[in-house]
Amino acid sequence: QVQLVESGGGSVQAGGSLKLSCAASGVRFSMCDMAWYRQAPGKEREVVSSISSWRSTTEYADSVKGRFTISQDMTKNTLYLQMNSLKTEDTAVYYCAACRNSGNIFAYWGQGTQVTVSS
Predict the structure, then answer these.
(1) Which of 76, 69, 87 is nearest to 24 (CA)?
(2) pLDDT digits (tens, 9 = 90+) for 60-84
(3) CB–CB of 59/50 below 8 Å?
(4) Bridge partners, residue 59, by sequence
(5) Which residues contact 91 (CB under 8 A, 6 or more apart)?
(6) 116 touches 44 (CB < 8 A)
(7) Secondary structure of the chain as H, E, C letters
């Protein structure tokens, strides 16, 4: 059974930093692409960043390039998202996702963690 548990969200002022964690069980990082998504109030869920260990690739949304860094620790089976220079528009619920299929859809999702950036 796959379980993804996010943590690290909170409230921060613009310009500040947060580091999100996603503790994964039942998932092998070497076999599954992982990603962070976010959903702001009244907006659709959007991909923030993804990582593929078997392809050795990382991808970022243009809106977070240069500010956010995705990483994973296979010994801890944990996915991270380091968020620096936060902006008010980064306010959203952030979700961890695992195992992208051929249709570019992730099969497993965490419950989300709230990030609020104030001016």
Answers:
(1) 76
(2) 999 999 999 999 999 999 999 999 9
(3) yes
(4) 50
(5) 40, 115, 116, 117
(6) no
(7) CCEEEEECCEEEECCCCEEEEEEEECCCCCCCCEEEEEECCCCCCEEEEEEECCCCEEEECCCCCCCEEEEEECCCCEEEEEECCCCHHHCEEEEEEEEECCCCCEEEECCCEEEEEEC
Confidence of residue 103 (pLDDT cuts 50, 70, 90): confident
Contacts of 62 (CB under 8 A, 6+ apart): none
Residue 85's alpha-carbon distances to 49, 58, 80, 97, in angstroms, are 16, 20, 16, 23
Task: At 63, list the tokens.
Answer: 């809106």
The structure tokens listed for 4 are: 């993804």
